[in-house]
Design brief:
The protein has nine helices and twelve strands. The protein has 291 residues and is of the alpha+beta class. The protein has an eight-stranded mixed β-sheet, with helices on both faces. Strands 3-2-1-6 form a four-stranded antiparallel β-sheet, covered by helices on one side. The longest helix is centred in the first third of the chain and has 15 residues, at 50-64.
Length: 291
């Protein structure tokens, strides 16, 4: 691998982790102390410490090649029913709601357009994926993505530019395009640039300001609360639906948000409860503390 191989992710608890040449070389300080989702990881994080998070990332590197040329790009069963990747892969699989998703892959690809198989969407984000800050190009992974129907925005640089990814998807002829973003200003810019066709999915929101939470609530179709108190409060003012309680996902629009969640409910064989309530509805277990 190259001397310039560097990947930066914000892992459990929005902890900054640097990976070079398949090795974890730097681990920052997590922003929260506990997360029920992290306790369910294949390599669990029972408490938010740099040591536990490092073990988790090293486990991901061993098991599916995270941030290395061995990166698996297809994923299997759902990790959580209402995770971003689970919702998007389900919507693409069903057809009608979505025909493409713009995601960011940690494995040396950056922004890419994924269509079929839906498992490619599941492989790029979700339970296997942390918040991606930076990645370096890995030709083997780019080739694997392309073999499975994905189109990488910038194979030579692995750039992360979700707005450019939506533009690329539109150029490829897609009309119902979902895009993930963790940046409120980017979500607002995509909404302004692509008002009719983009379904905006806000992810990785732990620690964002109240102003950014409010901007996300105005801009996104689906808004994941993560460990953000501000997102819970701002999204609940206008949300049409809340999916899940420990780590809620809010549907902010009817066609782009609510329909995708209800489509997932219709598809799943898991037991689900649906009832009216004033939002947000807290769970018995939530990340702690909310930031």
């Amino acid at each position: 691998m190259s001397d310039h191989d560097e990947h930066i992710v914000e892992a459990a608890g929005r902890c900054r982790v640097v990976i070079r040449n398949g090795r974890v070389v730097e681990v920052g300080t997590p922003q929260i102390e506990d997360c029920p989702l992290a306790r369910r990881f294949a390599c669990p994080v029972p408490e938010m410490t740099p040591e536990a998070i490092k073990r988790n990332i090293e486990g991901r590197i061993r098991s599916f090649g995270m941030c290395t040329p061995k990166r698996e790009v297809l994923a299997g069963p759902d990790f959580v029913i209402f995770g971003a990747s689970e919702l998007l892969s389900s919507a693409v699989r069903r057809g009608g709601d979505l025909d493409a998703a713009v995601i960011a892959s940690d494995g040396g690809a950056g922004t890419l357009v994924a269509t079929n198989p839906p498992a490619l969407i599941q492989g790029g984000i979700g339970g296997r994926m942390s918040g991606l800050v930076k990645t370096s190009p890995i030709p083997e992974v780019v080739a694997r993505i392309e073999e499975n129907g994905g189109v990488v925005l910038a194979p030579a640089t692995a750039a992360i530019d979700q707005a450019a990814g939506v533009a690329l998807a539109a150029e490829l002829g897609h009309r119902r395009i979902a895009v993930t973003t963790a940046v409120a200003a980017e979500a607002a810019a995509i909404r302004e640039q692509f008002p009719p066709g983009a379904v905006i999915v806000a992810v990785h929101t732990t620690g964002i300001s109240r102003e950014d939470a409010a901007l996300m609530a105005r801009s996104a179709d689906l808004l994941t609360a993560c460990a953000s108190r501000h997102v819970r409060e701002e999204a609940a003012k206008t949300a049409l639906l809340q999916a899940g309680t420990s780590i809620p996902v809010f549907a902010m629009t009817a066609a782009g948000g609510k329909a995708i969640i209800l489509g997932k409910v219709a598809e799943t064989d898991q037991q689900v409860i649906v009832h009216g309530a004033r939002l947000p509805v807290p769970g018995s277990q939530s990340p702690s503390p909310l930031r």
